[in-house]
Amino acid sequence: MRTHKLLAAIAIPVALTLSAAHAQQASTFPDRPIRLIIGSAPGSGPDILSRVLAESLYKVWGQRIVVDSRPGVAGIISAELALRANPDGYTWMMLTSQLFVATSVYPDLKFNLDKDFVSIALIGTVPFVQMVNPQVPAKSIPELIALAKKSPGQLRYGSAGAGASEHLSGVMFARMTGTEMLHVPYKGIAQAIADTLSNEVQLTYAVLPAARPHIDAGRLRPLGVTTPKRAPLFPDVPSISEAVPGYAMFGWYSLVAPNGTPNGILAKVSAEVVKAVREPEFAERHKGLGVEVLGGGRPELDKFRSAERKRITELVKAAGVQIK
Fold it and tell me: pTM of the entire structure?
């Protein structure tokens, strides 16, 4: 009994000391640059959005947010790197639909995305665009389906990596249309787009921010968007679901941190990020990229992640995607 009382007497002051220390950390945070790790290549949607967000937060804190691009294995490399960081609030990770999908199909991961990373903020969603090289003799979804059926396995599509959202988009399209296409994985969507431009692969799927410059310049031909409804920026481009009922996929962006990051810092970061993305200027800048800004805090992202885990798990199971 005396031992329990002694332990309690020690534990309470220690807990109070730690609480006070965390409060002090939050009050002075940030006092040095912050590292934001993204699992996508420079020029990709996450990279574009991260740099705009970094600019907005610099105006508030006077501290740089250094965007650290670590593409590869559909974002898994970025998660492994972020998890090794000290959970002090100075390392964040851009959690996207790409990485989320990858963790549903890759076996033997060194991390548990749902347990090892805590939510900061939900930023927004964005459609993927199915694009073909102009040399491809298909100007609509039905024409692409007919071409693929005429030459099974001859059409090649690129993605940001095996198990990435673009890969799953292609798998879903093939299965739902009864076609066969060859998947070519890359270390980032920028490389997949580059090879689509050169016709090394005939088509790819990319989030609208990465796709739009090539579409506007006429270098790639958009056939459809992956969301159930048409994208406001491309009202003349149909939703794939108009030709393939039930087809639906979308990208999303959020911020997380390694588990163990002090709650006070998480709350402070979340509040500032949500405030920044809800600014009319931020939304206007991303309106041109097709991003629907949501600006949700930690509870909203927790709920969103839970719903997406259920949805993506069911999609992967139905599509039969497996990475060995």
Answer: 0.77
